[in-house]
Amino acid sequence: MAGVPPGKTYTPGLDFSGVTYTCPAKKAQSEADRAHEIIKEKLPLLHQINALLAVTFGDRPTFFVDGRGDEAKILESCDDEPDCRLNIKPEYIIQFYENKLEPRYGLFKDAFFNEASMPAGKIPVAINAFSRLPEPTEDVEQVKRDIEEFGYGLAKNVLSPEQVAIMRKAVVEQAAGERKAGIAQVDGGPDGPNQRLWTLINKGDDFLDLLNHPIIDEFIPWALGEHAIITTYTANIARPGNVPMQLHTDQVAVQPPIRDIAFGMNILFYLEDVTEKNGATRVYPGSHLGQVAPEDIFTVEGSAPAEAPAGTALIVDSRIWHATGPNREEAGERPLILLFFMRSFIRQQENNFLSLRRSDVWPKLSDRHKRMLGFYTTGALGGVDGEVREGLFVEWKDGVGRCGRRMTGVRGEGASVG
Ligand SMILES: [Fe+2]
User: Which SUPFAM superfamilies does its entry note (predicted)?
Assistant: First the structure.
């Protein structure tokens, strides 16, 4: 694995520590050279930016791409103040060029961990132009049409007011408990006003029961096929004063980018009337199809708030650009539950195989839960010790994993084959 040195060698004769192939310094130089060549090749187009860019490849000297005139030029030095400064790995330029990396993602990829990688300066914002946007509706076929056209839809009254109250209480109490225990996971700025609850499958019977909701059966197989599994099951509470989240798509892990199909679908259960002011999820309508994308992923300018009353489910295609919005209220909070499915061959973000070893939760899981969580073989995936026949549950027995029962019906209990 790249960048991870080998550990101790156990077998005499199998020590590979003296073997090297590519010299890192040589590789870095060759990538920088290649990235320069690519920029040079693209100069006839780069006047379109109508701006002066300062570009730095890691610790190499900064150079300038001057696209202010009719013909763009590369300059080794320039006394003018650049419109934008980019500090980027040359390998990303190569990957953009070879269509192996989503450009917008790559531009900001390292900024999370390395402040110096944050593009700085004036970056224009994309403009959306639609004559209408999805409205909350109980007509699921309309919601599907909205998802196809806009990348998201709003299914109204998925939860009754009583059910909203139950789930809201579950989220709020769990959040308070995690805060009290000093294990709250917060984000949304330096003071961390937003709180996120992870692995809800472990956090109460209410969350197990929500997985029986038929809205899942209505939308997930329609979008992702029969074997989609839960990649994350979380709650997010946006509180006043938060900083809007970085815009992203939920399939950024799919690199090289494959945007022709959705790999995931997220169902967001609204547990509060969600408004632009209290932190509605911000979306770029139509961006799932690729023609619309934010210029700057650190601002929600140009995005639309997905407003809807409590009890609505916002259902989103994983290709759409979106983010938690800013909560500009004086008080209160905006809790919601995010149930995110991905196709069965995508690695899950939450490692349920480890987190579900809790002895009090595992016995409560139905076949439906286990299937949704990935404890089930599909295709040639998910087996134990070579067993990959389609349709087997995997389980723990005497402290080890094994393949066990076979599914006998869509929702029925399995019959033992083990
Ligand atoms: Fe997201």
Answer: Clavaminate synthase-like (SSF51197)
